[in-house]
Amino acid sequence: MTINRLKHFRVMNAETQTQAAKAAGVTQPTYQRWETGKTEIPKSHLAKLAKHFKTTELELLGRHPPKKAAFYDDEAPLDLQYYGECAVHFVGGGEPLVLSISEEAHAQAYEELQSDKRFIVMKDLGNRTVAIRHKAISELYFSSEAYDTYGPDHAYYKLATPIQMPDTRDWAIVEAIRDEEIGGGDHTSDFAKADVERVQRQIMITDEQFDELVAEGAIKPENLAIEKAARAAETDEIMALAHTVTVQFSTGKRREIAYVDCNLFECIEPLIDIHYPYGGNDNDEPNMIRLPYEGYHRTVFFNPDVLDYISFPTHKIEEGEVESYDDGLIDGDEANSDDAMVIKLPKTKKRGRGRNEN
To answer: CA of 245: how far to CAs of 204, 223, 258, in Å?
Structure first.
């Protein structure tokens, strides 16, 4: 099975499988097999779906070239144009948060900082979506790529993400590589082999590559063990960005929580979505943030009033967003059944939350 992006585009277009199947001219069971990757999408139907979702065939298949941060390229999408860094200092004196951000993230944060939002959200170029409590901020410095320093304490800053890799599909591969290393099994076969190898080259150096570096004189033989250990630590830090939630409290204490399998979008949504909750609850701001990081067996609750920030892997937020919105989609004839979900999300809202994938 190879992962495609049919579900992503369908949900962000606020359509059920039945509606998407109708647009493709097939039955819902046939479409479902395409979406789950159980059967290959015929070329003629792939073209029809690409036109329907206003995207390309390669985008639907998830096989287009990887998205990269753009430097000095005004024609690139704003979410890929590298702006520079943002250094956030906190009232409680906790460690500053330093993010590499895009032009889009800079513009959004600039606007939200002057709003009355309880939390502002920033996405960096290394798979972090961070909800920062507005009142926890003592000072915030934007520094464009024209400058080599990020703020007054530049010498002591540490970037929250050591790599600029903005394509969330690449982070799904990082997660799969990590799962294979930790638990064994086959997790990377869902992705194209060339993509897996490309991502591996970005995040790690193999023993064969180290041997080549020694042969070329780039690394002295007596320093090989030290270089391997240093690179392994860097790789571990990068892999952690694919599977951990970072929380910093107003006391300065920080937690790193490795989640197993939960919908992280449902954790951050109450903090950032002005439409939350969708019904039945008059309290728009949750008393506690719930993170069921091992489902029934392990759950943690955070008090949002004592947070500096909470940081999530962006690729897991996007995956969870698709799953959550898909759960709220109901066909017209299903809405009247006894088994219909209570919540039905309005299509206008869901379109407004879609991603610009072009």
So the answer is: 22, 34, 6
